[in-house]
Amino acid sequence: MIDFELSKEQKELQAVARNFAQTEIAPHAAEFDRTGEFPRDICQKAWELKLMNNGITKEYGGMGRSAIEEAIIAEEIAAGCSGIGTAMEANGLAEAPLILFGNDYHKRTFLKPMTEKLSFAAYAVTEPEAGSDVARVKLEARKVGKKWVLNGVKWWITNGGIASWYFVLARTEKGPTGFVVPADTPGITRGAKEWNMGQRCSNTVRIQFEDVEVPEENLIHEEGDGFKIAMKTFDHTRALVGAAALGVARAAFTHSLNYAKTRKAFDRKIITYQGIGFKLADMAMKIDAARFLVWRAAWLYDNGKPNAKEASMAKAFAADTAMEAATEAVQIFGGYGYTNEMPVEKLMRDAKIYQIYEGTCEIQRTIIVGQLLRGR
Amino acid sequence: MRSLRILGRELKKKSRTFYCPVCHLPLSLDDLDAHGYTVCPVCSVVLEVVMSCGFPLPVVHDVEIKRAQPRLRTHGLSTHITIGLLPLGLFFGALALCMEFFAFNYAGYMERLGLILFSVSLIGSFLTFGTGFLDWWTRYRHRHYRQIYDKIKLSILLWVIGIVAMVVRLKFVTDGDILSHAFVLFLCLQGAMLLIVGIIGHIGGNLVFGK
After folding, report:
1. How do residues A8-27 score in pLDDT, each as one tens digit?
2. Considering only CA atoms, which of B155, B152, B185 is closest in space to residue B170?
3. Of the candidates B5, B51, B54, which has its C-beta nearest A80's C-beta?
Protein backbone atom coordinates (compact mmCIF):
# COMPACT_ATOMS: atom_id res chain seq x y z
CA MET A 1 0.00 0.00 0.00
CA ILE A 2 1.27 3.48 -0.79
CA ASP A 3 0.44 6.32 1.57
CA PHE A 4 1.68 9.89 1.14
CA GLU A 5 0.09 11.11 4.39
CA LEU A 6 2.06 11.55 7.59
CA SER A 7 0.58 9.99 10.70
CA LYS A 8 -0.90 12.16 13.46
CA GLU A 9 2.24 11.71 15.59
CA GLN A 10 4.49 12.55 12.67
CA LYS A 11 2.49 15.71 11.97
CA GLU A 12 2.80 16.72 15.60
CA LEU A 13 6.54 16.11 15.51
CA GLN A 14 6.75 18.17 12.31
CA ALA A 15 4.86 21.02 13.98
CA VAL A 16 7.19 20.99 17.00
CA ALA A 17 10.31 21.00 14.80
CA ARG A 18 8.91 23.70 12.51
CA ASN A 19 7.94 25.92 15.40
CA PHE A 20 11.39 25.45 16.95
CA ALA A 21 13.08 26.30 13.65
CA GLN A 22 11.00 29.44 13.13
CA THR A 23 11.12 30.81 16.64
CA GLU A 24 14.48 29.70 18.00
CA ILE A 25 16.69 29.17 14.95
CA ALA A 26 15.60 31.56 12.18
CA PRO A 27 15.94 34.78 14.24
CA HIS A 28 19.60 33.95 14.98
CA ALA A 29 20.65 32.25 11.76
CA ALA A 30 22.32 35.31 10.23
CA GLU A 31 24.22 36.12 13.43
CA PHE A 32 25.61 32.59 13.81
CA ASP A 33 26.55 32.61 10.14
CA ARG A 34 28.39 35.91 10.59
CA THR A 35 30.20 35.06 13.82
CA GLY A 36 30.76 31.36 13.23
CA GLU A 37 29.99 30.79 16.92
CA PHE A 38 28.90 27.25 17.72
CA PRO A 39 25.15 27.37 18.59
CA ARG A 40 25.40 25.56 21.92
CA ASP A 41 22.47 27.40 23.54
CA ILE A 42 20.19 26.54 20.61
CA CYS A 43 21.37 22.91 20.73
CA GLN A 44 20.57 22.91 24.44
CA LYS A 45 16.97 23.95 23.70
CA ALA A 46 16.72 21.37 20.91
CA TRP A 47 18.09 18.69 23.23
CA GLU A 48 15.50 19.60 25.88
CA LEU A 49 12.77 19.29 23.24
CA LYS A 50 14.23 15.88 22.29
CA LEU A 51 15.01 16.96 18.74
CA MET A 52 18.55 15.57 18.97
CA ASN A 53 19.99 12.05 19.23
CA ASN A 54 16.85 10.75 17.55
CA GLY A 55 18.14 7.32 16.60
CA ILE A 56 19.14 6.16 20.09
CA THR A 57 16.74 3.46 21.22
CA LYS A 58 14.45 3.85 24.24
CA GLU A 59 16.44 1.20 26.09
CA TYR A 60 19.34 3.65 26.26
CA GLY A 61 17.25 6.71 27.08
CA GLY A 62 16.64 7.90 23.52
CA MET A 63 13.48 8.36 21.50
CA GLY A 64 14.08 5.46 19.14
CA ARG A 65 12.72 7.46 16.25
CA SER A 66 12.29 6.00 12.80
CA ALA A 67 14.33 7.29 9.85
CA ILE A 68 11.17 8.92 8.47
CA GLU A 69 10.72 10.87 11.69
CA GLU A 70 14.38 11.84 11.67
CA ALA A 71 13.97 13.05 8.08
CA ILE A 72 10.97 15.16 9.08
CA ILE A 73 13.00 16.84 11.84
CA ALA A 74 16.07 17.33 9.62
CA GLU A 75 14.02 19.06 6.91
CA GLU A 76 12.34 21.45 9.32
CA ILE A 77 15.52 22.37 11.19
CA ALA A 78 17.50 22.94 7.98
CA ALA A 79 14.74 25.23 6.70
CA GLY A 80 15.57 27.44 9.70
CA CYS A 81 19.36 27.22 9.35
CA SER A 82 21.24 24.30 7.89
CA GLY A 83 24.43 25.29 9.74
CA ILE A 84 22.66 24.95 13.07
CA GLY A 85 20.96 21.84 11.69
CA THR A 86 24.34 20.27 10.92
CA ALA A 87 25.58 21.13 14.41
CA MET A 88 22.55 19.30 15.81
CA GLU A 89 22.41 16.38 13.39
CA ALA A 90 26.12 15.51 13.35
CA ASN A 91 25.53 13.56 16.56
CA GLY A 92 23.26 11.23 14.65
CA LEU A 93 26.00 10.42 12.15
CA ALA A 94 28.49 9.54 14.91
CA GLU A 95 25.90 7.55 16.84
CA ALA A 96 24.69 5.48 13.88
CA PRO A 97 27.68 3.04 13.80
CA LEU A 98 27.19 2.33 17.50
CA ILE A 99 23.44 1.94 17.12
CA LEU A 100 23.90 -0.44 14.18
CA PHE A 101 27.01 -2.38 15.22
CA GLY A 102 27.84 -1.47 18.83
CA ASN A 103 27.44 -3.86 21.75
CA ASP A 104 25.76 -3.15 25.07
CA TYR A 105 28.99 -1.74 26.56
CA HIS A 106 29.35 0.77 23.68
CA LYS A 107 25.75 1.84 23.94
CA ARG A 108 25.74 2.23 27.73
CA THR A 109 29.11 3.99 27.83
CA PHE A 110 28.76 6.32 24.87
CA LEU A 111 25.14 6.58 23.74
CA LYS A 112 23.29 6.70 27.05
CA PRO A 113 25.16 9.80 28.35
CA MET A 114 24.09 11.66 25.19
CA THR A 115 20.49 11.36 26.35
CA GLU A 116 21.23 12.47 29.92
CA LYS A 117 23.05 15.72 29.21
CA LEU A 118 23.72 17.80 26.10
CA SER A 119 26.93 16.51 24.61
CA PHE A 120 28.35 15.99 21.16
CA ALA A 121 29.97 13.24 19.18
CA ALA A 122 31.75 13.25 15.83
CA TYR A 123 32.16 10.84 12.94
CA ALA A 124 35.87 10.89 12.19
CA VAL A 125 36.39 9.15 8.86
CA THR A 126 37.61 11.66 6.26
CA GLU A 127 41.36 12.17 5.91
CA PRO A 128 43.30 14.71 3.86
CA GLU A 129 44.00 12.14 1.13
CA ALA A 130 40.88 9.96 1.64
CA GLY A 131 37.55 11.72 1.23
CA SER A 132 35.37 10.01 -1.33
CA ASP A 133 37.69 6.99 -1.28
CA VAL A 134 36.84 5.94 2.29
CA ALA A 135 38.51 2.53 2.03
CA ARG A 136 41.88 4.26 1.66
CA VAL A 137 42.02 5.72 5.17
CA LYS A 138 45.59 5.74 6.48
CA LEU A 139 45.13 6.45 10.18
CA GLU A 140 46.95 3.48 11.64
CA ALA A 141 45.69 1.26 14.47
CA ARG A 142 48.33 -1.08 15.90
CA LYS A 143 47.57 -3.77 18.51
CA VAL A 144 49.88 -3.45 21.53
CA GLY A 145 48.93 -5.90 24.29
CA LYS A 146 45.27 -5.37 25.14
CA LYS A 147 45.15 -1.94 23.58
CA TRP A 148 45.07 -0.39 20.16
CA VAL A 149 47.41 2.50 19.43
CA LEU A 150 46.15 5.03 16.89
CA ASN A 151 48.34 7.35 14.82
CA GLY A 152 47.28 9.65 12.01
CA VAL A 153 45.08 12.60 11.14
CA LYS A 154 41.39 13.11 10.48
CA TRP A 155 40.23 16.09 8.48
CA TRP A 156 37.01 18.16 8.19
CA ILE A 157 35.45 16.49 11.19
CA THR A 158 32.07 18.05 11.93
CA ASN A 159 31.62 18.78 15.65
CA GLY A 160 35.22 17.57 16.11
CA GLY A 161 36.19 20.50 18.32
CA ILE A 162 33.37 20.01 20.82
CA ALA A 163 32.77 16.26 20.72
CA SER A 164 33.14 14.14 23.83
CA TRP A 165 33.86 11.03 21.73
CA TYR A 166 34.60 10.05 18.16
CA PHE A 167 33.73 7.20 15.87
CA VAL A 168 37.10 6.67 14.17
CA LEU A 169 37.78 4.63 11.06
CA ALA A 170 41.35 3.34 11.27
CA ARG A 171 43.45 0.92 9.24
CA THR A 172 44.56 -2.33 10.86
CA GLU A 173 46.23 -5.35 9.25
CA LYS A 174 42.78 -6.63 8.30
CA GLY A 175 41.67 -3.36 6.71
CA PRO A 176 39.52 -0.39 7.82
CA THR A 177 38.22 -0.90 11.36
CA GLY A 178 35.84 1.15 13.50
CA PHE A 179 36.70 2.40 16.99
CA VAL A 180 34.95 4.58 19.49
CA VAL A 181 37.47 6.94 21.10
CA PRO A 182 36.82 9.33 24.02
CA ALA A 183 37.90 12.84 23.01
CA ASP A 184 39.91 13.38 26.19
CA THR A 185 42.21 10.45 25.49
CA PRO A 186 45.87 11.58 25.73
CA GLY A 187 47.43 12.08 22.31
CA ILE A 188 44.37 13.64 20.65
CA THR A 189 44.87 17.20 19.43
CA ARG A 190 41.99 19.15 17.96
CA GLY A 191 42.81 21.73 15.30
CA ALA A 192 41.36 25.20 14.89
CA LYS A 193 37.87 25.71 13.49
CA GLU A 194 37.81 25.75 9.69
CA TRP A 195 36.12 28.80 8.12
CA ASN A 196 33.96 27.33 5.40
CA MET A 197 31.93 28.93 2.62
CA GLY A 198 28.59 28.00 4.22
CA GLN A 199 27.18 26.34 7.34
CA ARG A 200 29.69 28.51 9.14
CA CYS A 201 28.49 27.91 12.69
CA SER A 202 28.99 24.17 12.46
CA ASN A 203 32.28 23.15 14.01
CA THR A 204 34.64 21.57 11.50
CA VAL A 205 38.19 20.77 12.62
CA ARG A 206 41.27 18.66 11.99
CA ILE A 207 42.05 15.98 14.61
CA GLN A 208 45.53 14.66 15.15
CA PHE A 209 46.06 11.23 16.77
CA GLU A 210 49.52 10.64 18.27
CA ASP A 211 49.98 7.32 20.06
CA VAL A 212 46.38 7.38 21.22
CA GLU A 213 45.74 4.28 23.32
CA VAL A 214 42.28 2.77 22.94
CA PRO A 215 41.07 -0.23 24.99
CA GLU A 216 40.28 -3.26 22.85
CA GLU A 217 36.64 -3.24 23.96
CA ASN A 218 36.26 0.06 22.06
CA LEU A 219 36.62 -1.73 18.74
CA ILE A 220 33.25 -1.74 16.96
CA HIS A 221 32.03 -5.14 15.71
CA GLU A 222 34.93 -7.08 14.13
CA GLU A 223 38.39 -6.02 13.05
CA GLY A 224 38.31 -5.22 9.31
CA ASP A 225 34.58 -4.45 9.30
CA GLY A 226 35.07 -0.68 9.22
CA PHE A 227 34.19 -0.15 5.56
CA LYS A 228 30.98 -2.14 5.97
CA ILE A 229 30.11 -0.14 9.09
CA ALA A 230 30.76 3.16 7.30
CA MET A 231 28.63 2.17 4.30
CA LYS A 232 25.75 0.86 6.42
CA THR A 233 25.87 4.09 8.40
CA PHE A 234 25.58 6.06 5.17
CA ASP A 235 22.58 3.98 4.08
CA HIS A 236 20.86 5.43 7.13
CA THR A 237 22.25 8.96 7.18
CA ARG A 238 22.24 9.80 3.46
CA ALA A 239 18.47 9.95 3.47
CA LEU A 240 18.69 12.36 6.41
CA VAL A 241 21.27 14.54 4.67
CA GLY A 242 18.91 14.54 1.70
CA ALA A 243 16.13 15.66 4.05
CA ALA A 244 18.28 18.54 5.31
CA ALA A 245 19.10 19.56 1.72
CA LEU A 246 15.39 19.45 1.09
CA GLY A 247 14.90 21.87 4.00
CA VAL A 248 17.29 24.32 2.35
CA ALA A 249 15.51 23.91 -0.99
CA ARG A 250 12.14 24.46 0.66
CA ALA A 251 13.36 27.60 2.42
CA ALA A 252 14.74 28.96 -0.87
CA PHE A 253 11.45 28.18 -2.58
CA THR A 254 9.29 29.70 0.18
CA HIS A 255 11.36 32.90 0.30
CA SER A 256 11.25 33.16 -3.51
CA LEU A 257 7.51 32.59 -3.66
CA ASN A 258 6.83 35.19 -0.95
CA TYR A 259 9.17 37.66 -2.59
CA ALA A 260 7.77 37.13 -6.08
CA LYS A 261 4.22 37.59 -4.78
CA THR A 262 5.19 40.91 -3.18
CA ARG A 263 7.89 42.56 -5.28
CA LYS A 264 6.75 44.61 -8.28
CA ALA A 265 8.54 45.43 -11.51
CA PHE A 266 7.02 47.28 -14.47
CA ASP A 267 3.93 47.83 -12.25
CA ARG A 268 3.23 44.12 -11.90
CA LYS A 269 4.09 41.56 -9.28
CA ILE A 270 7.06 39.66 -10.60
CA ILE A 271 5.38 36.28 -10.11
CA THR A 272 3.09 37.19 -13.00
CA TYR A 273 6.05 37.08 -15.39
CA GLN A 274 6.59 33.67 -16.93
CA GLY A 275 10.34 33.88 -16.45
CA ILE A 276 9.84 33.96 -12.70
CA GLY A 277 6.72 31.79 -12.50
CA PHE A 278 8.36 28.90 -14.35
CA LYS A 279 11.35 29.00 -12.05
CA LEU A 280 8.99 28.65 -9.08
CA ALA A 281 7.08 25.84 -10.75
CA ASP A 282 10.32 23.96 -11.43
CA MET A 283 11.43 24.43 -7.85
CA ALA A 284 8.10 23.15 -6.51
CA MET A 285 8.25 20.05 -8.75
CA LYS A 286 11.79 19.16 -7.79
CA ILE A 287 11.23 19.72 -4.09
CA ASP A 288 8.26 17.35 -4.11
CA ALA A 289 10.26 14.78 -6.09
CA ALA A 290 13.18 15.09 -3.66
CA ARG A 291 10.86 14.65 -0.68
CA PHE A 292 9.38 11.46 -2.10
CA LEU A 293 12.86 10.07 -2.78
CA VAL A 294 13.98 10.93 0.76
CA TRP A 295 10.91 9.41 2.38
CA ARG A 296 11.18 6.27 0.26
CA ALA A 297 14.84 5.77 1.23
CA ALA A 298 13.95 6.31 4.90
CA TRP A 299 10.94 3.99 4.67
CA LEU A 300 13.06 1.22 3.15
CA TYR A 301 15.58 1.62 5.96
CA ASP A 302 12.85 1.54 8.61
CA ASN A 303 11.48 -1.67 7.09
CA GLY A 304 14.85 -3.38 7.03
CA LYS A 305 15.06 -3.44 3.24
CA PRO A 306 18.23 -2.67 1.23
CA ASN A 307 18.28 1.04 0.39
CA ALA A 308 21.82 1.86 -0.76
CA LYS A 309 20.64 2.85 -4.25
CA GLU A 310 17.59 4.73 -3.01
CA ALA A 311 19.55 6.57 -0.28
CA SER A 312 22.10 7.68 -2.87
CA MET A 313 19.33 8.76 -5.23
CA ALA A 314 17.65 10.74 -2.46
CA LYS A 315 20.86 12.39 -1.29
CA ALA A 316 22.11 13.30 -4.76
CA PHE A 317 18.79 14.56 -6.04
CA ALA A 318 17.96 16.55 -2.91
CA ALA A 319 21.45 18.09 -2.85
CA ASP A 320 21.23 19.12 -6.51
CA THR A 321 17.73 20.46 -5.91
CA ALA A 322 18.92 22.51 -2.92
CA MET A 323 21.73 24.07 -4.94
CA GLU A 324 19.48 24.77 -7.90
CA ALA A 325 16.67 26.20 -5.77
CA ALA A 326 19.06 28.44 -3.82
CA THR A 327 20.71 29.71 -7.03
CA GLU A 328 17.34 30.44 -8.60
CA ALA A 329 16.19 32.12 -5.40
CA VAL A 330 19.11 34.54 -5.61
CA GLN A 331 18.16 35.19 -9.24
CA ILE A 332 14.52 35.87 -8.34
CA PHE A 333 15.59 38.30 -5.60
CA GLY A 334 17.84 40.07 -8.12
CA GLY A 335 20.36 42.49 -6.60
CA TYR A 336 18.83 42.06 -3.16
CA GLY A 337 19.48 38.34 -3.36
CA TYR A 338 23.17 39.03 -3.72
CA THR A 339 23.34 40.99 -0.44
CA ASN A 340 23.69 39.42 2.97
CA GLU A 341 20.59 41.21 4.30
CA MET A 342 18.40 38.64 2.56
CA PRO A 343 18.38 34.99 3.62
CA VAL A 344 18.82 33.54 0.12
CA GLU A 345 22.49 34.49 -0.18
CA LYS A 346 23.23 32.34 2.85
CA LEU A 347 21.12 29.51 1.45
CA MET A 348 23.22 29.47 -1.71
CA ARG A 349 26.43 29.15 0.31
CA ASP A 350 24.89 26.57 2.64
CA ALA A 351 23.41 24.44 -0.15
CA LYS A 352 26.74 23.73 -1.83
CA ILE A 353 28.05 21.46 0.90
CA TYR A 354 25.18 19.01 0.39
CA GLN A 355 26.66 18.17 -3.01
CA ILE A 356 29.94 17.38 -1.26
CA TYR A 357 29.70 15.91 2.24
CA GLU A 358 28.64 12.35 3.08
CA GLY A 359 29.62 11.38 -0.45
CA THR A 360 29.74 13.81 -3.34
CA CYS A 361 26.95 13.77 -5.90
CA GLU A 362 29.39 12.03 -8.26
CA ILE A 363 30.01 9.27 -5.71
CA GLN A 364 26.24 8.88 -5.24
CA ARG A 365 25.85 8.37 -8.97
CA THR A 366 28.70 5.85 -8.91
CA ILE A 367 26.87 3.94 -6.18
CA ILE A 368 23.62 4.06 -8.14
CA VAL A 369 25.33 2.71 -11.27
CA GLY A 370 27.05 0.01 -9.20
CA GLN A 371 23.70 -1.07 -7.80
CA LEU A 372 22.12 -1.05 -11.27
CA LEU A 373 24.94 -3.25 -12.56
CA ARG A 374 24.19 -5.72 -9.79
CA GLY A 375 20.58 -5.75 -10.88
CA ARG A 376 19.26 -4.11 -7.71
CA MET B 1 30.87 36.91 28.02
CA ARG B 2 29.05 33.98 26.42
CA SER B 3 26.09 34.51 28.77
CA LEU B 4 25.95 38.16 27.72
CA ARG B 5 25.90 37.14 24.07
CA ILE B 6 23.06 34.68 24.74
CA LEU B 7 21.16 37.39 26.64
CA GLY B 8 21.72 39.78 23.72
CA ARG B 9 20.35 37.20 21.30
CA GLU B 10 17.25 36.65 23.42
CA LEU B 11 16.60 40.40 23.63
CA LYS B 12 17.06 40.71 19.88
CA LYS B 13 14.61 37.89 19.34
CA LYS B 14 12.05 39.63 21.54
CA SER B 15 12.51 42.94 19.72
CA ARG B 16 11.88 41.06 16.44
CA THR B 17 14.62 42.81 14.54
CA PHE B 18 15.26 42.85 10.81
CA TYR B 19 17.47 45.06 8.68
CA CYS B 20 16.63 47.58 6.01
CA PRO B 21 18.03 45.98 2.85
CA VAL B 22 19.21 49.36 1.56
CA CYS B 23 20.85 51.19 4.46
CA HIS B 24 21.09 48.20 6.86
CA LEU B 25 19.42 50.05 9.75
CA PRO B 26 18.04 47.61 12.32
CA LEU B 27 14.26 47.88 12.29
CA SER B 28 11.61 46.06 14.29
CA LEU B 29 8.53 44.17 13.21
CA ASP B 30 6.77 46.35 15.78
CA ASP B 31 7.50 49.33 13.49
CA LEU B 32 5.19 47.97 10.79
CA ASP B 33 1.71 49.34 10.19
CA ALA B 34 -1.36 47.10 10.07
CA HIS B 35 -0.62 46.16 6.44
CA GLY B 36 2.97 45.19 7.11
CA TYR B 37 4.50 48.38 5.68
CA THR B 38 7.10 50.74 7.04
CA VAL B 39 9.34 53.51 5.75
CA CYS B 40 12.99 53.31 6.69
CA PRO B 41 13.74 56.43 8.77
CA VAL B 42 17.24 56.72 7.33
CA CYS B 43 17.07 55.94 3.62
CA SER B 44 13.32 56.49 3.14
CA VAL B 45 12.59 53.28 1.24
CA VAL B 46 9.06 51.97 1.55
CA LEU B 47 9.22 48.39 2.78
CA GLU B 48 6.60 45.67 2.87
CA VAL B 49 7.69 42.93 5.23
CA VAL B 50 6.46 39.37 4.76
CA MET B 51 7.32 36.50 7.07
CA SER B 52 8.89 33.52 5.33
CA CYS B 53 9.96 30.36 7.23
CA GLY B 54 10.45 32.50 10.34
CA PHE B 55 12.53 35.10 8.44
CA PRO B 56 11.24 38.63 7.86
CA LEU B 57 11.61 39.45 4.15
CA PRO B 58 11.67 43.22 3.62
CA VAL B 59 10.54 43.89 0.04
CA VAL B 60 11.31 47.38 -1.32
CA HIS B 61 8.39 49.04 -3.09
CA ASP B 62 9.25 52.71 -3.34
CA VAL B 63 11.47 55.55 -2.11
CA GLU B 64 10.09 58.69 -0.46
CA ILE B 65 12.43 61.13 -2.13
CA LYS B 66 10.73 64.23 -0.66
CA ARG B 67 11.79 63.43 2.86
CA ALA B 68 15.43 64.44 2.57
CA GLN B 69 17.52 65.52 5.55
CA PRO B 70 16.49 69.09 6.60
CA ARG B 71 18.81 72.03 5.90
CA LEU B 72 18.43 73.54 9.36
CA ARG B 73 19.20 70.76 11.80
CA THR B 74 17.74 72.35 14.91
CA HIS B 75 17.63 69.04 16.77
CA GLY B 76 21.24 68.25 15.97
CA LEU B 77 22.39 71.76 16.97
CA SER B 78 20.48 71.89 20.26
CA THR B 79 21.52 68.33 21.07
CA HIS B 80 25.22 68.88 20.68
CA ILE B 81 25.26 72.15 22.61
CA THR B 82 23.49 70.66 25.62
CA ILE B 83 25.38 67.38 25.45
CA GLY B 84 28.64 69.29 25.32
CA LEU B 85 27.83 71.11 28.56
CA LEU B 86 26.95 68.02 30.59
CA PRO B 87 30.45 66.46 30.72
CA LEU B 88 31.91 69.91 31.37
CA GLY B 89 29.59 70.35 34.36
CA LEU B 90 30.62 66.94 35.65
CA PHE B 91 34.29 67.76 35.05
CA PHE B 92 34.14 71.00 37.04
CA GLY B 93 32.18 69.31 39.83
CA ALA B 94 34.80 66.54 40.08
CA LEU B 95 37.56 69.18 39.89
CA ALA B 96 35.92 71.05 42.78
CA LEU B 97 35.91 67.83 44.81
CA CYS B 98 39.64 67.36 44.21
CA MET B 99 40.41 71.02 44.90
CA GLU B 100 38.87 70.68 48.35
CA PHE B 101 42.10 68.86 49.25
CA PHE B 102 44.77 71.11 47.71
CA ALA B 103 43.19 74.43 46.57
CA PHE B 104 40.37 74.92 48.99
CA ASN B 105 39.79 78.62 48.18
CA TYR B 106 38.90 77.97 44.53
CA ALA B 107 36.82 74.83 45.02
CA GLY B 108 33.62 76.79 45.58
CA TYR B 109 34.00 78.69 42.30
CA MET B 110 34.57 75.50 40.39
CA GLU B 111 31.57 73.87 42.00
CA ARG B 112 29.31 76.80 41.10
CA LEU B 113 30.62 76.82 37.53
CA GLY B 114 29.86 73.09 37.30
CA LEU B 115 26.38 73.66 38.68
CA ILE B 116 25.65 76.43 36.17
CA LEU B 117 26.80 74.28 33.26
CA PHE B 118 24.73 71.35 34.52
CA SER B 119 21.67 73.58 34.92
CA VAL B 120 22.00 74.96 31.39
CA SER B 121 22.45 71.43 30.08
CA LEU B 122 19.35 70.18 31.91
CA ILE B 123 17.22 73.09 30.72
CA GLY B 124 18.65 72.63 27.21
CA SER B 125 17.61 69.00 27.22
CA PHE B 126 13.96 70.10 27.15
CA LEU B 127 14.67 72.15 24.05
CA THR B 128 16.49 69.18 22.53
CA PHE B 129 13.52 66.96 23.24
CA GLY B 130 11.16 69.50 21.69
CA THR B 131 13.17 69.78 18.47
CA GLY B 132 13.53 66.02 18.32
CA PHE B 133 9.80 65.57 18.77
CA LEU B 134 9.20 68.11 15.99
CA ASP B 135 11.58 66.18 13.73
CA TRP B 136 9.66 62.99 14.44
CA TRP B 137 6.37 64.71 13.70
CA THR B 138 7.50 66.30 10.44
CA ARG B 139 10.49 64.46 8.95
CA TYR B 140 9.45 61.03 10.17
CA ARG B 141 5.71 61.76 9.87
CA HIS B 142 5.18 60.51 13.45
CA ARG B 143 5.51 56.93 12.28
CA HIS B 144 6.11 54.21 14.81
CA TYR B 145 9.82 53.59 15.06
CA ARG B 146 11.32 51.57 17.87
CA GLN B 147 14.41 53.78 17.90
CA ILE B 148 12.40 56.96 18.38
CA TYR B 149 10.30 55.41 21.13
CA ASP B 150 13.50 54.26 22.80
CA LYS B 151 14.87 57.80 22.55
CA ILE B 152 11.70 59.25 24.09
CA LYS B 153 11.77 56.77 26.98
CA LEU B 154 15.44 57.40 27.65
CA SER B 155 14.90 61.18 27.50
CA ILE B 156 12.22 60.94 30.17
CA LEU B 157 14.59 58.85 32.30
CA LEU B 158 17.27 61.49 31.72
CA TRP B 159 14.97 64.25 33.01
CA VAL B 160 13.98 62.26 36.06
CA ILE B 161 17.61 61.67 37.00
CA GLY B 162 18.46 65.30 36.17
CA ILE B 163 15.69 66.68 38.38
CA VAL B 164 16.63 64.31 41.22
CA ALA B 165 20.25 65.43 40.85
CA MET B 166 19.23 69.08 41.01
CA VAL B 167 17.08 68.49 44.10
CA VAL B 168 19.96 66.62 45.78
CA ARG B 169 22.34 69.47 44.97
CA LEU B 170 20.06 72.34 46.06
CA LYS B 171 18.45 70.71 49.08
CA PHE B 172 21.10 68.42 50.56
CA VAL B 173 24.45 69.99 49.68
CA THR B 174 24.16 72.67 52.34
CA ASP B 175 26.63 75.57 52.48
CA GLY B 176 28.50 74.20 49.50
CA ASP B 177 29.71 71.16 51.45
CA ILE B 178 31.60 69.57 48.59
CA LEU B 179 32.88 66.68 50.68
CA SER B 180 29.37 65.58 51.68
CA HIS B 181 27.82 62.29 50.49
CA ALA B 182 25.06 64.27 48.82
CA PHE B 183 27.56 66.05 46.54
CA VAL B 184 29.18 62.74 45.56
CA LEU B 185 25.69 61.40 44.80
CA PHE B 186 25.05 64.52 42.70
CA LEU B 187 28.18 63.76 40.66
CA CYS B 188 27.23 60.08 40.30
CA LEU B 189 23.80 61.05 38.98
CA GLN B 190 25.48 63.29 36.43
CA GLY B 191 27.62 60.34 35.42
CA ALA B 192 24.49 58.23 34.94
CA MET B 193 22.99 61.00 32.81
CA LEU B 194 26.12 61.04 30.68
CA LEU B 195 25.72 57.32 30.06
CA ILE B 196 22.07 57.74 29.03
CA VAL B 197 22.94 60.68 26.78
CA GLY B 198 25.55 58.48 25.13
CA ILE B 199 22.97 55.79 24.39
CA ILE B 200 20.44 58.33 23.07
CA GLY B 201 23.16 59.85 20.92
CA HIS B 202 24.11 56.44 19.55
CA ILE B 203 20.51 55.71 18.55
CA GLY B 204 20.21 59.19 17.06
CA GLY B 205 23.43 58.69 15.12
CA ASN B 206 22.03 55.46 13.67
CA LEU B 207 18.92 57.32 12.58
CA VAL B 208 20.97 59.91 10.72
CA PHE B 209 23.83 57.89 9.31
CA GLY B 210 22.45 54.33 9.27
CA LYS B 211 24.22 51.25 10.54
Report:
1. 999 999 999 999 999 999 99
2. B185
3. B54
| pLDDT tens-digit series, residues B130-161 | 998 988 888 788 888 888 999 999 999 999 99
Beta carbons of A200 and A32 less than 8 angstroms apart: yes
Q: Which residue of A has its CA nearest to B58?
A: A342
Task: For chain A, give every residue range classified as CATH 2.40.110.10.
Answer: 121-223
Closest by Cβ to A336, choosing from B17, B21, B52:
B21
Task: Assess if residue B69 is contained within a domain.
Answer: no
Q: Which domain holds residue B37?
A: 9-63
What does the pLDDT look like over B90-137, one tens digit per residue?
999 999 988 888 777 788 888 899 999 999 999 999 999 999 898 888
| pLDDT surpassing 90 at residue B73 | no
Cβ-based neighbours of A344, under 8 Å, separated by 6 or more: A252, A255, A256, A326, A329, A330, A333, A337
SS3 call for B209: helix
Average pLDDT, integer, range A217-246: 95
Q: Are residues B53 and A22, on separate chains, in Cβ contact within 8 Å? A: yes
- Yes or no: is domain A121-223 CATH 3.30.390.50? no
Pair B32, B133 in one domain: no
Please check whether residues B54 and B121 belong to one and the same domain: no
* pTM passes above 0.90: no
8 Å CB contact between B38 and B50: no
Are the Cβ atoms of B54 and A254 closer than 8 angstroms?
no
Q: Give the type of residue at A123.
A: Y
The third-level CATH classification (topology) of the domain covering A8-116 is: Butyryl-Coa Dehydrogenase, subunit A; domain 1 (1.10.540)
Fold of A227-373: Butyryl-CoA Dehydrogenase, subunit A; domain 3 (1.20.140)
CATH of the domain at B55: 2.20.28
Q: Please answer whether residues A25 and A89 qualify as being in contact, where contact means their C-beta atoms are separated by less than 8 angstroms.
A: no
Say yes or no: B140 and B82 in one domain.
yes
Least confident range from A234-243, A247-256, B93-102: namely B93-102
